[in-house]
Design a protein that fits this description.
The complex is a heterodimer of chains A (about 120) and B (about 110).
Chain A (H helix, E strand, L loop, with lengths): L2 E5 L3 E2 L5 E8 L8 E6 L6 E6 L5 E3 L7 E6 L4 E6 L8 E7 L6 E2 L3 E5 L2
Parallel strand pairs in A: 2-11
Antiparallel strand pairs in A: 1-3, 3-8, 4-5, 4-9, 5-6, 7-8, 9-10, 9-11
Chain B lengths: L8 E4 L5 E6 L11 E6 L6 E4 L13 E6 L2 E6 L8 E9 L3 E4 L3 E5 L1
Parallel strand pairs in B: 1-9
Antiparallel strand pairs in B: 2-6, 3-4, 3-7, 5-6, 7-8, 7-9
The chains are: A mainly beta (about 120), B mainly beta (about 110).
Chain lengths: ~120, ~110
Amino acid sequence: QVQLQESGPGLVKPSETLSLTCSVSGGSISTYYWSWIRQPPGKGLEWIAYINYSGRTNYNPSLKSRATISLDTSKSQFSLKLNSVTAADTAVYYCTRGAGWYPYWSQGTLVTVSS
Amino acid sequence: QSALTQPASVSGSPGQSITISCTGTNSDVGAYDYVSWYQQHPGKAPRLLIYDVHNRPSGVSNRFSGSKSGNTASLTISELQAEDEADYYCNSYASTNTYFFGTGTKVTVL
């Protein structure tokens, strides 16, 4: 069974960079697409970006200029960096397998942007 | 382009059927058969119910079914049960090579 676990700081200061890593177990990271999705408290889901096994990436246009997704197959991990964060970036961040439909999700991690 | 439109809430009694709509445009829902649906209980990660409009992953009850007509996709839950009370989200591929979620629907079992 594929399992995903995100890691990273739960508190980030405004204007700094949010960095999250997702560790994948129970399956090969070198086969599928991998995505980040977020959910502000009490609000809906927002797709952030995906990366595939060959490093092809795609971003939500509303975040493209600030987001970077990367893949480390040797560690079975993929990562998200979001720079110049504001309070509007406060959300639960999920890492998932897939692009377009997501059968596997991490438990989610709350990242709060606050000074 | 923005989120797909879903009703804020839908309710039904146990045993009844309910349908949740997901309205997009001819650049997303209407253009591609890449609509998926998710169930989310409070404090939990979403769970995939339907992909590619009407396909169910293994392990998902056949009480959940998906369809599409024009720019609107639909999720039907038949034989409604107390455990179906949750938030539901649709998702669609769009012509801009991006993906959009719906605004979300809270299902209440009366």
